[in-house]
Amino acid sequence: MTSQAQVLSPSSHEYGDINQMVQPLSYYVTDxxxxxxxxxxxxxxxxxxxxxxxxxxxxxxxxxxxSVNATLPQFMVERIQREVIxxxxxxxxxxxxxxxxxxxxxxxNLGTQITSWDRESFMEGAEISMNPHVESNNxxxxxxxxxxxxxxxxxxxDINIRELEASKNAASLRGATYPxxxxxxxxxxxxVGEVVEQILINGAPKxxxxxxxxxxxxxxxxxxxxxxxxxxxxxxxxxxKDVREMxxxxxxxxxxxxxxxxxxxxxxxxxxxxxxxxxxxxxLDAFQTGTNLVQYKTNRDxxxxxxxxxxxxxxxxxxxxxxxxxxxxxxxxDVAMAQPFSTYQWQNDPTLRRYLVMGAMTxxxxxxxxxxxxxxxxQP
Length: 380
Prior knowledge:
This protein is an alpha+beta fold.
């Protein structure tokens, strides 16, 4: 486990004036007069792809990033950013599932401190008649709102001036890019990624803003719960029975299987995804036990044969003996991304270059007007 990143509430002023922070490393470098010294980020297609995949399926909706001056040459900037993005993605298993189904939603900018969304009631049924002029009930829906604060997740690291100069010297001798040590960048990036996953799972209960807090899959008060068997010792029949019964809870709540399998494909409506804790990985990979076995099929294979199950995903930060069956749809959950995760640099000491891996986001769990939700948490 890497060191923890910090989660700041929207009202935190730890950094004072945020405009004193320098140019994000994912865009361009300027000199003290504001003149661009190199091309913008979008001219580097591979780095752009990695950056945009991390943050949203439609990144062009994002507002402009924070920008003042940076102090490093662009090729060094790009190496730092590549390392940060690569390491940040490693812990993001649950986040990646939500991203895959288009559930990372651009929402405002770093100044957006809270997000709200509507809950809508049902209408009465439509009329059946032979004449379209027959009057039907003039029904209307009722609305209520839920809300959540958008905290900042960040981790600092620094590189001292002697390390930077040594890198420059080595590069000039070899005619190569700076061989800068990226270990601290990797640790900081993983710390941020781990906190993002923990927020998605457990929320951030210490963050309270305008009477609202951040919930996770395991802390949302309206979540469905189900008592499963212990899958580390359960038979195949017991495991699949648990999944079928969890699926039935979602169907009873009007969250139905999709009309196409999109796990690993494109198009169609999403089915269900089963998230599971790390101690269930070996039991799911094990071949079936019990009677009426299917040749060469594992417990995981048998789960995925159930109609409507798109796939299974290991989520390492789930507590042991935990599974979540979810409908990956915006009527169930999404993530409001106010500030894409990136690296920022500033200098207030002539001997140090300081860096910050930072983003701002919050999960938004949805319920209908009668408090039904589209996922089930299963534990023994």
